[in-house]
C-alpha cells in the first residue's frame, strides 16, 4: 500500500482511519491536481480543524509533494510529486468515473468527465440480497428459476460465488435437483428464500472441481494483427506474452470478454482480436470453454484434419 520512499515509522504510528484520509489527499493531488480542506470535510465528515491536521500530517510525511496556492486557496502537487501510497489502477478508474459514494440517496458522481458502458442487465435487489446472505452464511436457497431450455421450475441451490461474465451477473451454485455445480443467472430468479440446515460436504466449494481448477493462459499478439507492438503496449507484456490465471468454471466468459481468439489456427477475423491464445489445448475439460471465441475441442480439431 505504501511506497518505499515513505517514512514507515511515522506512518506505522497512525490509525487506519487517518491513513485512509491521507490516501485520499494523495489521490486528489496525484489524479486531480488539487486539494481543498472542504474535500476532506465533504468526504469524511471531519471538521475544519481535523482537515487541517490531516493536511499537516501529510506534509510532514511528504513535504515535497504539495504547495499552497494562495490565490486559488487550495493545494497543488509540486513538480517532484511522488505518490505516498500505491494506487490500484482499477480502483482509481472506478473512483474517477463513479466517485466515492457521496450520499445514501445520490447517484454516482464522476470526479472528471467519463464515459463507460451502461449495464444492460442487473439483478433485482430483493433477489441479490438473499443470495449474498446465503453465500456469506453458507446456506441453501429455494427459488423460482426461468431456464431457456426447461422453462420455469422450483430449485434448491447452494450459492457459492457471484460471477460477472462481462454481460451479466450470475451465481456459481450447487443444484440439488441435478446434483451438480452450475451457473445460474441472477435476473432469471424470483421468490428467493433461505433454507435452514447445514450444507453437506459434497455441496461445498471444495468439491466444485471446475471452480477449483485454475488454468494458466498465455496470450500473445494476434498473428494477423498489423501492429503487434501496439498490443505489447496495450497489455504490458514486455516478453511478448501476457500470462493470466482463470478458473475453469469461468475461463470461457473471461476470454470472450477480452475478445481473445482461441481458434487453434488463429483464424478469427476482426480488429477486435488483438490477442490469441497460444495453446488452446489448455482449455480442454473446462466446462464453459465452448463460449470462448473460436474454441474447438481437440476431437473436432483432429476430425477436421482427417481426409
From TrEMBL:
Domain WYL residue range list: 126-193
Transmembrane segments: none
Residue stretches in coiled coil: none
Domain DNA-binding transcriptional repressor CapW winged helix-turn-helix: 19-88
Domain DNA-binding transcriptional repressor CapW C-terminal dimerisation per the UniProt entry, residue ranges: 215-279
Protein name in UniProt: WYL domain-containing protein
Organism whose genome encodes this protein: Kinneretia aquatilis
Amino acid at each position: 500500500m505504501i511506497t518505499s520512499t515513505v517514512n514507515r515509522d511515522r506512518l506505522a504510528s497512525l490509525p487506519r482511519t487517518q491513513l485512509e484520509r491521507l490516501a485520499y489527499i494523495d489521490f486528489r493531488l496525484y489524479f486531480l491536481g488539487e486539494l481543498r480542506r472542504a474535500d476532506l470535510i465533504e468526504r469524511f465528515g471531519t471538521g475544519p480543524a481535523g482537515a487541517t491536521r490531516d493536511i499537516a500530517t501529510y506534509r510532514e510525511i511528504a513535504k515535497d509533494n504539495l504547495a499552497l496556492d494562495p490565490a486559488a486557496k487550495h493545494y497543488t502537487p509540486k513538480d517532484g510529486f511522488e505518490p505516498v501510497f500505491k494506487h490500484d489502477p482499477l480502483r482509481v478508474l472506478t473512483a474517477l468515473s463513479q466517485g466515492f459514494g457521496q450520499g445514501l440517496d445520490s447517484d454516482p458522481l464522476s470526479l472528471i468527465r467519463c464515459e463507460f458502458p451502461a449495464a444492460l442487465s442487473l439483478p433485482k435487489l430483493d433477489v441479490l440480497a438473499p443470495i449474498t446472505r446465503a453465500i456469506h452464511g453458507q446456506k441453501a436457497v429455494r427459488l423460482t428459476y426461468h431456464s431457456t431450455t426447461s422453462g420455469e421450475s422450483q430449485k434448491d441451490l447452494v450459492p457459492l460465488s457471484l460471477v460477472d461474465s462481462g454481460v451479466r451477473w450470475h451465481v456459481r451454485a450447487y443444484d440439488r435437483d441435478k446434483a451438480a455445480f452450475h451457473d445460474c443467472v441472477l435476473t432469471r430468479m424470483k421468490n428467493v428464500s433461505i433454507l435452514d440446515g447445514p450444507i453437506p460436504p459434497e455441496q461445498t466449494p471444495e468439491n466444485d472441481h471446475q471452480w477449483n481448477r485454475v488454468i494458466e493462459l498465455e496470450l500473445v499478439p494476434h498473428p494477423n494483427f498489423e501492429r503487434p507492438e501496439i498490443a505489447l503496449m496495450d497489455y504490458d507484456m514486455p516478453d511478448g506474452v501476457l500470462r493470466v490465471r482463470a478458473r475453469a468454471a469461468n475461463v470461457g466468459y473471461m476470454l470472450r470478454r477480452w475478445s481473445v481468439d482461441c481458434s487453434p489456427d488463429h483464424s478469427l477475423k476482426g480488429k477486435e482480436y488483438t490477442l490469441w491464445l497460444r495453446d488452446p489445448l489448455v482449455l480442454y475439460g473446462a466446462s464453459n470453454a465452448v463460449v470462448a471465441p473460436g474454441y474447438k475441442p481437440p476431437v473436432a480439431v483432429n476430425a477436421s484434419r482427417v481426409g
